[in-house]
């Protein structure tokens, strides 16, 4: 294996790691957003201050993000959807940041910014550096 092939393989592994980690983060969000609102709003007060249907809808959006980051590439069925899911994740995290800043919760956006950066890396990597081919 040449140095270029090893480098490409390393990038591929790092991208998969990023995809799995970001998908796991979104799945944690899914689990939280489908807990009883009274229970979860103790840790995250905003969830008790918006309609329950909105919290559940965000849980569904988180689920779509998690699945979009993994399944297209894993199954090699339209794997070009994975970087698009990453871009959607960036938009979601930016919207979440704006939401928290508007509520005076700017200190809560660190995780959103970190997730957006990981998603940007995935989008870049899967579009340009190490795309996954369809079957």
UniProtKB/TrEMBL annotation:
Keyword annotations: Membrane, Transmembrane, Transmembrane helix
Transmembrane segments: 12-32, 52-71, 83-102, 108-127
InterPro entries: DoxX
Compartments where found: Membrane
Record GO cellular component, one term: membrane
Originating organism: Ohtaekwangia koreensis
Superkingdom, taxonomy of origin: Bacteria
Organism ancestry: Bacteria, Pseudomonadati, Bacteroidota, Cytophagia, Cytophagales
Membrane topology: Multi-pass membrane protein
Protein name, per record: DoxX-like family protein
């Amino acid at each position: 294996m040449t140095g270029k092939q090893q480098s490409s393989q390393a990038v591929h592994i790092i991208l998969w790691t990023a995809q799995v980690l970001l998908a796991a983060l979104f799945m944690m969000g899914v689990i939280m957003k489908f807990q009883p609102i009274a229970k979860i709003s103790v840790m995250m007060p905003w969830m008790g201050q918006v309609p329950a249907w909105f919290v559940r809808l965000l849980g569904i959006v988180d689920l779509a993000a998690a699945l979009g980051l993994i399944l297209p590439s894993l199954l090699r069925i339209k794997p070009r959807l994975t970087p698009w899911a990453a871009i959607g994740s960036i938009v979601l995290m930016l919207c979440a940041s704006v939401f928290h800043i508007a509520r005076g919760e700017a200190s809560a956006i660190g995780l959103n910014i970190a997730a957006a950066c990981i998603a940007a890396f995935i989008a870049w990597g899967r579009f340009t550096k190490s795309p996954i081919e369809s079957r």
